[in-house]
From TrEMBL:
Pfam family, one: AAA_31
Every AAA domain range: 134-324
Gene: pomZ
GO terms, biological process: cell division
CDD domains linked: ParAB_family
Lineage: Bacteria, Pseudomonadati, Pseudomonadota, Alphaproteobacteria, Rhodobacterales
Leader sequence residues: none
Coiled-coil region: none
UniProt keyword annotations, A-Z: Cell cycle, Cell division
Name of the featured protein: Cell division protein PomZ
Superkingdom of the organism of origin: Bacteria
């Protein structure tokens, strides 16, 4: 007689309540959260140090002749060697024979040399009209886990390798971008918080001048606002281990801005809270100091994100090729419409009453980017998203590759990863994924600059 197979039940049936209760810990009080946070802080620090040098500082690796001639400067390896031999004052790199390694500072010097001495038909320096200001790029979506920080970080690194001077502003109190770029942010006074506070304090100061002239009571400036008036963006911008990427970092206390900004607005209804970020970028010459400014936003449509969106020339919206992320992104666009349209309606009603010109929010371009794309499983869904979003969509879908995960374990971007630590094919394929994303972004960027200089100036 054959043995009958044993009937099994799902693991969630026949559970014993008394045994389940015996496995529970004692009730949790708030001090346990502090203990968990302390453990996580120690673990976060230990993990972050994986990408750091023994002295606790991040260092950007050097770049080989192969990388420079394949990805960075459009010259043949043999020609680069001839130029270096003929110009001993140029950086010569380290290493023997044809395998030389250069710092990014040295690569930038070589770029400048070829731009002045090389073939005129080649692009040794990236396009940027001298009369144009920096473009501000906001990377936003209120759904977490869609690749906002990864997209912003890799675009910033791509642009830096391409020769642009970049500022990255981390607006997410989780500080992931700050960790990637090795930033040191001891408290909220090293974030954008004092710069937005300064914008409010300047508005209060101007309002108080009017009130004094009219004999009205003035709005008090507390100690925080008085201190903020003394802060410059130069106080909070820090260098990174990338020679042409600077950072305004973030840390947990930055989240208090989400509570403080509406309180300030209630104290002075005429303060345009959405312009705090825009104003310091414009008023303090930051737009003249950089080519591109990337804003990494928190996964919420809060006051910091509203500031980032209002300041942006280009809006990038990462999302995965799934129904839930498509649905969430659609709601994000709906909230953008209702938020900014309501600001316009409220402000313009007052402006019309005062016979002032009306305001209007505008962006040079908006693009949704499919990230972490798996063509074997997500092509149909990506096609649906493409059909509905139409010209809001990037054409290229950013593949997820093994290189992304391996680099992430070291708290590095893929451009910081040494290709010798990977299979060459894996590295080339992984790098191509982000290079193609950057290529599409760069086309938008230079098109916006060209339009600014050649069309809008003639209106």
């Amino acid at each position: 007689m054959s043995k009958q197979p044993t009937q099994t039940v799902p693991p969630y049936l026949n559970l014993n309540p008394e045994a389940a209760a015996a496995r529970l810990p004692d009730p949790i009080d708030t001090t346990r959260f502090a203990k968990a946070a302390a453990f996580c802080a120690k673990g976060r620090e230990d993990l972050a140090r994986r990408g750091y040098a023994p002295d606790g500082q991040k260092r950007l690796r050097k770049f080989s002749t192969w990388e420079i001639t394949k990805y960075l400067i459009p010259v043949a390896p043999a020609h680069l060697r001839r130029v270096l031999k003929a110009n001993p004052e140029l950086p010569q790199g380290e290493g023997d024979g044809g395998s030389k390694w250069f710092t990014l500072e040295e690569v930038l010097t070589l770029r400048q040399h070829f731009a002045s001495e090389g073939v005129s038909t080649k692009e040794y320096l990236p396009y940027r009209p001298k009369e144009a200001q920096a473009k501000v790029v906001s990377v936003a979506n209120f759904k977490g886990g869609v690749g906002k920080t990864s997209t912003a970080a890799h675009l910033a690194m791509s642009a830096a390798l391409d020769g642009y001077k970049v500022l990255v502003i981390d607006l997410d109190s989780q500080g992931s971008m700050t960790s990637i770029l090795g930033g040191s942010v001891p408290d909220e006074w090293s974030t954008v918080f004092p710069l937005i506070a300064k914008d409010f304090a300047k508005s209060v100061t101007a309002e108080n001048e009017v009130r004094r002239a009219g004999g009205q009571a003035e709005i008090p400036l507390d100690e925080t606002l008085q201190e903020a008036l003394q802060v410059s963006s130069r106080n909070v911008i820090q260098k990174t281990h990338w020679p042409n990427i600077d950072l305004i970092g973030a840390q947990l206390n930055l989240y208090w801005a989400e509570f403080q900004i509406p309180v300030w607005r209630m104290g002075l209804r005429s303060w345009p809270l959405w312009d705090g970020l825009t104003n310091f970028l414009e008023d303090e010459g930051v737009l003249d100091d950089y080519d591109i400014i990337f804003l990494d936003t928190p996964p919420a449509l809060g006051y910091l994100t509203i500031n980032a969106l209002a300041a942006a020339d280009i809006l990038l919206v990462p999302l995965g090729a799934s129904f839930l992320e498509f649905d969430s992104t659609g709601r994000f666009f709906d909230m953008l419409y209702s938020t900014f349209a309501s600001i316009e309606d409220g402000e313009n009603a007052s402006r019309r009453a005062a016979s002032l010109p009306e305001m209007k929010f505008e962006w040079d371009v908006v693009r949704a980017i499919v990230t972490r794309f798996d063509a074997s499983q997500q092509t149909d869904m990506a096609n649906v998203i493409q059909a509905y979003f139409g010209d809001f969509m990037n054409a290229y879908r950013q593949d997820y590759t093994a290189l992304v995960g391996q680099a992430g374990e070291q708290v590095n971007g893929i451009y910081e990863a040494d290709y010798r630590e990977f299979n060459r094919e894996t590295y080339v394929r992984g790098r191509e994924t982000f290079d193609r994303t950057y290529a599409e972004f760069k086309e938008l960027l230079i098109g916006c600059w060209w339009r600014d200089v050649n069309l809008e100036g003639n209106d």
